[in-house]
Design the sequence.
């Protein structure tokens, strides 16, 4: 939940208003903006997020991704970190938790001092002068999402409010819901409770629109490639049956002369097509599931800056698998119809004469 503009001081009332909603599990205020960090002559643009550690860990899973051991630019273990302890100020200097890729790029270690500068600062004679604050690296997190690990930096909400000049306000309130697939309906209901404008909502689909658009295009391309593969396989089945009709023309003529009907001849070639298509589908299914099972137990590294994740994950969706199997069997059946009709309409006299 956000408000048009940055003056969002009534967020405790918003949290209280939405607390009675049945689908809302937890809520937490946050401050979020772009900034620049610098250390030892290096600088990089980052996204600074201010959270209340106790509430923030109930809404997001950042605590599960904090590295409990960080050595040689590697996360030794994660999932046991304490965000509250790692953001606790020491000697009056606020702490920050940074992404592992950001730590690598800036050569950061636990305890290092960094300077965070934001373009939104204190108004003066020359306008809004940039404001800077020093932070001490209190922890490193590894989420597996390159965009987060390379740019995100967590600080406490009071420190973010001082850095961004919010004076007690926040940029929004995060909500964790029980049905993330129904966020559109939940967003409308939340706006109705709050009275609509000037409040607005942003869900996980909108915030990650680029990722889902890329995945949708990739899924369509993959579907087209698989469709062409199945169609080519169907043509192969049809060609095998056509060759069978030509090579067994004399046998077909003998069967017709002995009284076999056109329907019986068709059934023979249709059954042959079913045998070829079904056997091929079964072999492909076994090999595909075996490969998926094998890949599920391997961590295949990929280019994180291109695919946004550093390892390839394989998930078998049984409903899609059933659709593919049924489609392959239907196409295999359709590929048998024309060769079977050709065989059934063959004249027994011509077949015996040519044979």
Sequence:
């Amino acid at each position: 939940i956000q408000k048009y503009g940055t003056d969002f001081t009534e967020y405790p009332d918003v949290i209280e208003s939405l607390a009675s909603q049945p689908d809302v599990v937890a809520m937490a205020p946050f401050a979020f903006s772009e900034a620049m960090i610098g250390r030892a002559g290096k600088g990089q643009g980052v996204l600074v997020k201010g959270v209340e550690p106790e509430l923030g860990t109930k809404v997001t899973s950042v605590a599960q991704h904090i590295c409990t051991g960080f050595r040689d630019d590697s996360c030794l273990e994660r999932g046991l970190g304490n965000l509250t302890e790692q953001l606790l100020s020491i000697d009056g200097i606020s702490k920050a938790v940074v992404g592992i890729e950001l730590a690598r790029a800036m050569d950061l270690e636990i305890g290092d001092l960094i300077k965070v500068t934001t373009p939104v600062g204190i108004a003066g004679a020359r306008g809004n002068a940039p404001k800077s604050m020093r932070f001490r690296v209190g922890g490193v997190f590894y989420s597996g999402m390159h965009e987060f690990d390379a740019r995100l930096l967590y600080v406490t909400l009071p420190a973010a409010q001082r850095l961004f000049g919010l004076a007690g306000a926040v940029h929004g309130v995060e909500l964790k819901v029980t049905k993330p697939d129904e966020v559109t309906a939940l967003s409308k209901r939340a706006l109705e409770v709050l009275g609509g404008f000037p409040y607005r909502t942003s869900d996980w689909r909108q915030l990650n629109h680029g990722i889902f658009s890329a995945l949708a295009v990739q899924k369509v391309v993959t579907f087209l490639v698989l469709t062409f593969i199945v169609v080519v396989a169907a043509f192969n089945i049809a060609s095998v049956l056509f060759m069978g009709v030509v090579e067994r023309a004399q046998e077909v003529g003998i069967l017709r002369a002995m009284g076999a009907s056109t329907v019986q001849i068709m059934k023979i070639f249709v059954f042959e097509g079913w045998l070829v298509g079904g056997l091929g589908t079964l072999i492909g299914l076994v090999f595909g599931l075996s490969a998926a099972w094998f890949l599920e137990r391997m961590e295949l590294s990929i280019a994180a800056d291109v695919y946004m994740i550093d390892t390839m994950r394989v998930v078998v969706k049984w409903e899609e698998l059933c659709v593919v199997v049924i489609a392959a069997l239907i196409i295999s059946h359709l590929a048998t119809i024309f060769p079977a009709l050709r065989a059934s309409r063959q004249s027994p006299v011509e077949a015996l004469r040519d044979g």
Summary: The chain has a mean pLDDT of 79.
